[in-house]
Amino acid sequence: MNFTNLINLHELEFQSEGTEYSHYNSNSSKITSKDLGAKKLFFDVKELLPRQLSCPYHYHSDQEEVFIIIDGEVTVRQNNECKILKKGDLIFFPNSEEGAHQLFNHTDNPVRYLDLTTRFGTDVCKYPDSNKINAGNGQIYKITDKVDYFEGEDEVPEFWTKRKL
């Protein structure tokens, strides 16, 4: 049998997730869950470089996440508290404000971790530090633009007023 659903975490190749911001610098495994045939579960192995942040502090409305530290040490920020995670640690982030998280590699060595995420429904990602939301497909907005549910709905839409029903 050809095990196309099997990878070795210590033999992975990585590619840069480079950004224009010098404090966000990490690599992602070239092989991800999609390559192994997963449809409702996402995972990849991340390599967070020394003195770097993983991503902006955030939480999800629909996705749950698990990080498993494969190699090294990293500081996790969750609910504005910090803890050092080490090789073998597993941390779960619920899909709520209590699951807000961010990693910082406080060491001089890269840290590798498995990022495991559920993929059901429509996820909205919220960023408390920058007061933004990510509505998916790269659509990111400032929360300050938040409006009432009925904003712009003062009148019956023209669509209905022009119809004879």
UniProtKB/TrEMBL annotation:
SUPFAM superfamilies: RmlC-like cupins (SSF51182). InterPro entries: Cupin_2, GPI/OXD, RmlC-like_jellyroll, RmlC_Cupin_sf. Residues 47-116 form the Cupin type-2 domain. Keywords: Metal-binding. Pfam families: Cupin_2. Gene3D superfamilies: Jelly Rolls. The keyword Transit peptide does not apply. This is Cupin domain-containing protein. It comes from Chengkuizengella axinellae. The lineage of its organism: Bacteria, Bacillati, Bacillota, Bacilli, Bacillales.
